[in-house]
Amino acid sequence: MQGKMILDSASIIENKATLKTDSLKNAGDIRLTGNAAQLVIDSGMILQKGVLKIPEGKLLLLNADTSAMQVAPLAGIKTENPVSGKVVWRIGEVEAGSKYVIPFVNDSLEDVGIELEIVEAGIGNGYFEFITYATDTNNMHYPPVMYASYFKNPDDIVNRFWSIEAKNYTVVPSATITFKYAESDTGA
After folding, report:
1. pTM of the prediction?
2. DSSP readout, the chain?
3. How far apart are CA 84 and CA 87, in angstroms?
4. What is the residue range of 15's domain?
5. How far, in Å, are 65, 94, 110, 170, 175 from residue 91 at the CA level?
6. In this structure, are residues 141 and 82 in contact, taking their beta carbons and an 8 Å threshold?
7. Considering its fold, how many domains does the chain have in total?
């Protein structure tokens, strides 16, 4: 699909392939299913209500403008899988000071997002991949490479994992990253 996609009613889209559009505006939940599922947005997206659920596949945002992803209260993005299900934002060689907000939410629509502020621009037509998901109170379901060094005292670790990867850069940008978590992620 090319052009604009406007979802005026609460609906769920089961997408098992690539859906490409210039812009997206929703009024209900959207769910991507299947490892090959992609929602590709050329220009921008406005999540007005509901949650974009990405248990598998990816949201690919091609516009490097920091306002290309806008989210109203009671809306957000939820990734659910440590291996698949990600937000990919192609930002390329943006200026220092550019601030990207990935509006992740949990089941209660609490903000568990990521803010990425570019400190020094990278070189290349690169992109960032973002994932977050909750873990249990023993911090299980983290990627296996992390178990040995990080889990000697699980009570002092937030029960949530975030992953951010810069890819396709000749020189990777440097950035300041802010992680948000809900009270329910603290095990308190």
Report:
1. 0.85
2. --SEEE--S----EE-SEEEEEEEEESS-EEE-STT-EEEEEEEEEE-SEEEEESSSEEEE----TTSEEE-TTEEEEE--SSS-EEEEE--SPPTT-EEEE-BB-TT--B--EEEEEEE--BSS-EEEEEEEE--TT-TTS-GGGHHHH-S-GGGS-SEEEEEEEES-SBPPEEEEEE---GGGGT-
3. 10
4. 4-186
5. 8, 6, 26, 14, 13
6. yes
7. 1
Residue where the block lists tokens 């929602």: 39
Query: Locate tokens 């992609």: which residue?
Result: 38
Per-residue pLDDT of the chain (188 residues; tens, 9 = 90+): 445 555 555 555 555 667 777 777 777 777 777 777 788 888 888 888 888 888 888 899 999 999 999 998 889 999 877 677 899 999 999 999 999 999 999 888 899 999 999 999 999 999 999 988 877 666 666 555 554 455 555 666 777 888 899 999 999 999 999 999 888 887 65
Does residue 45 contact residue 24 with C-beta atoms inside 8 Å? Answer: yes
